[in-house]
């Protein structure tokens, strides 16, 4: 079965290759969570649910001839999507002229999906019971000082690393920042001759990332080993053919992904 309905579409194989290249390239430039999270999958579009264990408390319980698993829940892997149109006249003009088809709308749809994925990773969706790195219950919280002065950012992040180490949670570590906090660290620290971002980067092995979905004033440090968390991928980002409407072609960029947090104590949120 062709889930993406490409075989039934009138688009050529060469054009599909161009669309795929455009979508993957655009998404790769935007995606942040995948740069530090381990991927579990792709499992295939038919895998709709995945178990999520509380790694520190999961256990089998036998009672009255029944064995169940405590500390485990099963969640649906949601679909993320964004649609775009290819105009029939544009395709015909490109075919006649030999010029490449303008796939700006495909790139925009891929970027939109990438931002939705990162928003799901960082904030989850409490309407349907999905936890994010900044919203999961049980995560460590540290009050953030003013990171635009002194060495406050460095000392806060060092304190967070010390906290994780005391709890027996080790690297690799990754630090995700909102753009404003990232820019606040692009300055020379007094008495060091070094940019604060460079000092912080050394603390976390160079794994410092900024993401626009974090808005302003937000930062989170994670121990990103797969025993603590991973990103479940059912269907990796791909493009499907939906329909021909008013002679134009409607397509959908889609993926199925879910952040799986196994140890909420492996996260430090700066508030």
TrEMBL record:
Q: Does the keyword Amino-acid biosynthesis apply?
A: no
Instruction: Name its cellular compartments.
Output: Encapsulin nanocompartment
Which keywords does this Swiss-Prot/TrEMBL entry list?
Encapsulin nanocompartment
Q: By its UniProt entry, which Gene3D superfamilies does this protein fall under?
A: 3.30.2400.30, hypothetical protein PF0899 domain
Broad class of where this protein is predominantly found: other
Q: Which GO terms describe its cellular component?
A: encapsulin nanocompartment
Instruction: Return the similarity comment.
Output: Belongs to the encapsulin family. Family 1 subfamily.
- PANTHER family listed in its UniProt record: PEPTIDASE U56 FAMILY, TYPE 1 ENCAPSULIN SHELL PROTEIN
Instruction: Name the chain's protein.
Output: Type 1 encapsulin shell protein
Write the lineage as a comma-separated list.
Bacteria, Bacillati, Bacillota, Clostridia, Eubacteriales
